[in-house]
Amino acid sequence: MTSTIKIASILSCLFLLTVTSAISVFAAGGIVKSPTGTAPDRYVYYPGTEELKKDEIRLIACGTGLPAARRDQAATCFLAEVGNGDKFLFDIGTGSMPNVAALMIPYDFLDKVFLTHLHTDHWGDLSTLWAGGWTAGRTGPLKIWGPSGATKEMGTAYAVDHFLKAYNWDAATRNFVLSPKPGEITVKEFDYKAVNAVVYQENGVTIRSFPAIHAGDGPVSFVLEYAGLKVVIGGDTFPNKWFIKYAANADLAIHETFLTPPDLVKFYGQSPGQALLVGTGIHTSPQAFGKVMSTIKPRHAVGYHFFNEQSTHDDILVGVKETYSGPLSLAVDNMVWNISKEAIVERMVVSPDQAWAVAGPNKPPKPPAKGTVPDPITDFIKAGRWEPAEAAQAEMVKEFKKKYKLK
Ligand SMILES: [Zn+2]
Ligand SMILES: [Zn+2]
User: Fold this and answer.
1) What CATH number corresponds to the domain at position 232?
2) Which residue among 102, 120, 241, 335 is buried most deeply as judged by most CB within 10 Å?
3) Structural domain includes residue 293
4) Could you read off the pLDDT of 300-337 as tens digits, one per residue?
């Protein structure tokens, strides 16, 4: 069923390309030269099969949806992979981790997370990356960059500190059998009011932050610069003066374009008053999105943050077209852009539903030495183990111990 959905997504993507006249993407077509030959690259990216060029950025939409869950669209998450090998997760919204995991990137390479703000649809799947990565190959701590808030309690450091407190039972029980290192999270909190400030600079990658206007003080937008390329990750925001100034001339600019007020009423069950406030005050309408893009003139514009189906897609496209006619993607999950000086190519990721984690080059850290971490199970509970089950598995356990020379 999922592959049917993927094909449908590809078809709708092709439809989108025809209406947006992004000519460069048609270079991804080609012809099959013989009945026994291979098919050319057909609007599809198979993860792990293409080496990234030194001066290239690959950006993958791992979540493009809303706080309310939908199987077809997770909440916000964009993975940026740059030609030097570094990878950056921008937001990790609810439900986005299955899309990230399906890329089969070793967890050690997915240790840098930049949060635009602390709505769950932008960081709700941190738990999955944190604990899942811990059990499946990450060898060191997770590193999170995120904005401060108007008060200490509204900032990223506070959020992550209390995230770890909320998951204390999880950590305490894993610490007994796994190295505690990958369960740690380091936070680099930066001033949400800082304008175009560098928040990360390493190995030729610069990431800057500027304020966004959304729901409360704290949200930010990011600019990633690498190899003379500029990618803007807007997060959630009403159009603002900082975006106009610092996202100008981006190679690829992502800005939200929210469901239209009529669709918020029709599909999301909001009252007309609510719909207008949410769709034109807290978020960005399609017309306002178009105005932003025709002002900053990116090489390629990306709109996201709406449930993207035929009717909503068309409503948004009609709104955007009132004010913008340049190259455009209305994002769905698993859309991917290869960005270089020569071209910006949009395709769809085709990835397995049953992907396993892939080991990276680093050796896993040793579990804690016996007695250094308190046993989280008391003798009272242990005494409840059912003997016939122990007996039933005894032979298998003996064989396994023999094979791996375990005591
Ligand atoms: Zn938000
Ligand atoms: Zn959001």
Assistant:
1) 3.60.15.10
2) 335
3) yes
4) 999 999 999 999 999 999 999 999 999 999 999 999 99
